[in-house]
UniProtKB/TrEMBL annotation:
InterPro entries: PAP2/HPO_sf. It comes from Flavobacterium ardleyense. It comes from the Bacteria. This is PAP2 superfamily protein. Keywords: Membrane, Transmembrane, Transmembrane helix. Coiled coil: none annotated.
Amino acid sequence: MDLKKILPVFSYIFHPIFISVYGALFYFLITQNFFYPNQIYVMLVQITIITLLLPLSIYFLFRSLGLVTSFTEAPIKERRMPIAIQAVLLLVLLRFSVSKEITVELYYFFIGALISAVLSLTSVLLNFKCSLHMIGITALTAFIYGLSVYYKLPFVSLFAFCIVCMGLVASSRLYMKAHTYTELVVGLLIGLLPQLFLYRFWL
């Protein structure tokens, strides 16, 4: 099997647009005993609509208008509006859907995502293209690690799998010539540091 031929697949599987749903699914997988099934269902639907379906709809609208040209390899000038919209949608999610009192860990996960979105938007305005894919997969890995430690769950294999996925995503971005090593490292830091910092608030 030629790994290089399947590397681009990881850019789609771990596209930033899916990370919020992945994080929410993992969260409710390990905390399901603390919620009624209807609560979980409603929350997942809200998160899916706000962080996945709405951004996808906006992407196809922008594509039809010629404002964006690629789902995985957008140049700097095409990143400003989508990232700004992502930040606004995360604010909406935090304001109306994810409660600090009910789902504290998930709340801080999305606060970290919002901080990462603002930092990535700042980098774009400064004409620097950090890797959104690395931001997403790194934030998800940090969140999984934090939950595993907090709830004392033996998810060593899952955490190791996430580390491998980080490497595959980075390799995918390099193979597709979408990013440089520096852009990948900056993306990793933007995704990791907010999650680690906020982890201290719900530890």
